[in-house]
Amino acid sequence: MLALFTGRKPKRTVNSTQLRLWCREVTGLPEWLFNECYHTVGDLAETIALLLPPPERTDGAKPLHFWMEGLISLEKSTEAEKAAFIRSAWEQLQPGERFVFNKLITGEFRIGVSQGAIVNALAKAFEMESAVVSHMISGNWNPRETTLPQLLHDHHSNPDDSRPYPFFLAHALEGGPAALGAPADWQAEWKWDGIRGQLIKRNGQVFLWSRGEELITDKFPEISGLADQLPDGTVVDGEILAWMKPCNARCLSRIFRRA
Hints:
The structure is a single chain. 40% of the residues lie in helices and 9% in strands. It has 259 residues and is α+β, with helices and mostly antiparallel strands. It has a four-stranded antiparallel β-sheet.
């Protein structure tokens, strides 16, 4: 569940055209009528969930991981095998469950809970600091291979050199400007508009992350070339900007400005 809440959806193994076809085969609706229903509802997953007949089987409720693993296993399956699995699921799931199941297939599964709320809930449940939890659930981890206790507690024995830190985001002041202290204690700079990123140097390797937690190192070879010029343990959070001059450690502060 945490993987879904943090945007780690499985690779799509069934396309919309197939879902439309299989739904029409189950319901017996002509294509024009299905399209009319879809235009009225506006969402394919919901349309199919509303059109399907009541479930025919009651095999007992299956856990979420059963359906997730089933969808993932369809990647190399034939179209007939995919159709059999999807139709079997529709026969077992209730309308509300079908809706969520279809959403997972179409890749349009949206979580109405903020990342901060998820982090705070985990921090309270495991008696950890929110900043630590936010760091632990970032980066590359496979929900099929990593349990929640491993993710939160085994990072010292199984470190991930590429793991980013939570991005430092701006927030509106709760009080007046006077609450910030003396102006002389602050430093102001231009707001540069580029691609938000985080540069990490650990164990001789350089990693570059986007704010959406996508590893984009290979897309910026100029920045990854800084591996020999930065000390281990360096983390820079800021904007990736285009620059005319060759990149070195001195110009890093100009190219990768602090947010």
